[in-house]
Amino acid sequence: MSSSVAQKQPDISSYSKQDIAALIKHARLNRRFTQKELADLAGITVRAVQRIENALVMPRAYTLNALLEQLNISLTDVPKQTPPLDEKPTVSKSPKTTQWILTFGSPILLFIGSYAFILQSPTFPENAFELCVFIFCMGLFYLLLLLKIWKK
Question: Distance between CA 106 and CA 89 in Å, rounded?
């Protein structure tokens, strides 16, 4: 990059990660660049572009300047927006709902899968002991699955 790039590094202190992420992503899509293409042009990694566009990181001034230069935009192209403090993100399903669905749905699938396995095998189970071991293994598998589902 040229020395003029270093002189006009933007003041990003009054912008949030979300403001910058939205600006970069919108401009990239308008220019019809892929993340890889933009990363190559700006001399940064694709992972860096992904993290910036997903508002996971605040880019350094040099990185942001390289992106802005390649996209032919400036920070003044977007109004500074700060989200209201009382605004909460909407969540479609709580983690508890998912946990309960998995708790009651997985044994149904486990039973259907086990039943299909037994039906397709002409020799299984050969005796009651094999059937008991099979049932025990399915129960143990379900128990481990529950531990994973409900682990905090």
Answer: 30
**DSSP3 helix / strand / coil % (the chain, rounded to 5):** 65, 0, 35
Residue 11 clears pLDDT 90, i.e. is over it: no
* Tens-digit pLDDT profile for residues 57-99: 999 888 988 999 999 988 776 555 554 445 555 555 667 888 8
Our CA angle for 93, 96, 97, nearest 5°, is 50
CB 135 within 8 A of CB 96: no
Distance (Å) of CA 37 to CA 8, 56, 74, 128: 23, 20, 19, 63
Q: Rounded to whole angstroms, how far apart are CA atoms 100 and 151?
A: 13
pTM equals 0.47
Q: Report, at the CATH architecture level, how domain 3-77 is classified.
A: Orthogonal Bundle (1.10)
**CATH 1.10.260.40 boundaries in the chain:** 3-77
Sequence-distant (≥ 6) Cβ neighbours of residue 113 within 8 angstroms: none
The single-letter code of the amino acid at 1 is: M
